[in-house]
Amino acid sequence: MIPRLLQGELLTQLNEYPIVTVLGPRQAGKTTLVRLAMPDFDYISLEDPDNRQLAAEDPRAFLKAYPDRVIFDEIQRAPHLLSYLQSIVDADNRTGRFVLTGSHQLELRAAISQSLAGRTGLLHLLPLSIAELSGGGITFDSFEHYAFNGFLPRIHDKSQRPRTAYANYYQTYVERDVRQLIKLKDAGLFEKFIKLLAGRVGQIMNHQSLANDVGVDGKTIKDWLSILEASFVVFKLSPYFENFGKRVIKSPKYYFIEPGLLVYLLDIEKPEQIARDPLLGSLFENLVVVEALKARLHRGRTANLYFFRDSHGNEIDLLHKSGGEMTGVEIKAAETWHTVFKASLKRFSATLHPLHRQAIIYRGKPWRFEDGVQAMDYRSVDELFGFA
């Protein structure tokens, strides 16, 4: 078992709330985390058809059998239980009574907001980060091997072959879960959509262009992207445009939560192919952005991550806002340092918003320059964003 950074925050919130909810993608390690962190809790999986039937037929009797200190796994399979849990904790508001996990956040978030507002801590667990892998004694020599192997815990715990594992992951979870939500009969149409999305990772989203290529309308693309986001398949990086005028790009970018799944969707069959792939820069950017997201969420913090681009082509790959302070990051797949890497950060800081920290994340040696700019190795993303 590789130690997870979220465990400390999970235990802290159990002392603060009667319920703690852990959301995240399938196979990210939610069940393993909560069962190891709370070994004295009862455990009920709502993926089990018998448990689900009992919960549906007589929820009061079902919950009466588990009145205290229990984990309800995959709560999105029985969301009606949330209203009954509300009544239980309102009658006896002791902390640390229930832990819920869920893999789909669209309807579940609405149900939690309606029934459990103020009663539950809300945490997010994504697949392993580079820092967590390192803490478990697992390191790779190159970015290509990190991206190819990906970050699903089972791949590293069970020494699974990555390409086979991600083929099974896609067919078992992504196709099944997402297609059920979309209610799409044409599997080929969805596969075309997600592969085209993989080919545009990290690009400004043009819904109509993607719709034309898939063969559906723009509204359908927006709906499908919302479901992929809610299912933790992709992460939407929003543009930062506060007080910057009308020339700022306001369309989002999308990144895949699991780089290994992205590599699989691009039909890359071995790590060496990544270095020669036309999307090398996008693959590297995807890994860095998602590592920044993990650094924030795995410490129980809000992401507060953005990018910036205006109509003149001025761009910052990644911005983090904390209060009035902003950190700006440029992401480069290069292994060699070039002074020009600083240009966008300097221009943004001088003309639009002073940057508290400025960093270049690339594949070369770390440097700290006299002007305050840091050149950082991609393995150091957790240091930059985890303690910001």
Automatic annotation (TrEMBL):
UniProt cross-references to InterPro entries, sorted A to Z: AAA_14 (IPR041682), DUF4143 (IPR025420), P-loop_NTPase (IPR027417)
Signal peptide: none
Domain DUF4143: residue ranges: 175-333
Record-annotated AAA domain positions: 18-133
Source organism superkingdom: Bacteria
Protein name as annotated: AAA family ATPase
Record organism: Lamprobacter modestohalophilus
